[in-house]
């Protein structure tokens, strides 16, 4: 890789058109870092996850992609370019999909801004609309400065997540997520687990259990300067989604809080609005399936012996 070409590329690349969850909830768009990408490109363990398009004298694009939490689900984490044609963008996106398929992935996901120019070439490359997400933010002056998550969670009957809760949380995910969304985000426990995002795992996680079934979940992570929250509850959770949001922001203080909510989670959006969160940005998530799922089993007769 030519260092001078990469430095020149940085002058034109601007912001990435692809967003991880961590980047989506940050207050500013991710701008190209020459030093970081030089280090990634030359680090032996990182070269598998960074692709550079162009010639030694001219770099047209730098992409970063790889598994989320496991090998079954990949994501396009960054996509920097210098005025590529749409057909060239399509070729790059198809190439990343081929790399993911060769690594054993079942799908690759792409998050971009709702009006991004990357959406048309992504659709041509086989990416399908998955969901729309809205970024909500609670400014520090509106946030409660008193109370604690632990005290409120205990009062509500929530308990910390345990390693044995994975199956229960997968069932909750199936209960609150429409089947057309699960088609792209994971129909099996393995796909769902491999598709989880950081910080969606949560530094703190709480669940509410009734008769051996998990009915509600609360995840908390601390990003630079603010708190990221995520909640889920099925209709049988007696205290409702607003109580989970109230618990999630307890004692948040001046840093405020942020949440990234899919369009189908209308109860969560309503609870956030009631608490004073304001919508700020919209993202489109697209998914490219890398295998064809068999809808109906078929039998065959074979001779044996």
Broad structural category? alpha+beta
Instruction: List the uncertain runs.
Output: 298-305
What form results from the Cα inertia axes?
Answer: globular
Radius of gyration, taken over Cα atoms and rounded to an integer in Å: 21 Å
Largest sheet: 11 strands, mixed
Beta-sheet strand percentage?
Answer: 25-35%
Number of helical elements: 11
Number of strands: 11
Strands of the widest sheet, in order across it, are 1-2-3-4-11-5-10-9-8-7-6
Question: What is the residue-averaged pLDDT?
Answer: 86
Order of helices and strands: HHHEEEHEHEHEHHHEEEHEHE
- How helix-rich are the residues, as a percent range? 25-40%
Q: What is the terminal separation in angstroms?
A: 59 Å
What can you tell me about this protein's structure?
The chain is α+β, with helices and mostly antiparallel strands. Helix content is 32%, strand content 29%. The chain has an 11-stranded mixed β-sheet with strand order 1-2-3-4-11-5-10-9-8-7-6, with helices on both faces. The radius of gyration is 21 Å and the shape is globular. The termini are far apart. The model is unreliable at 298-305 (pLDDT under 50).
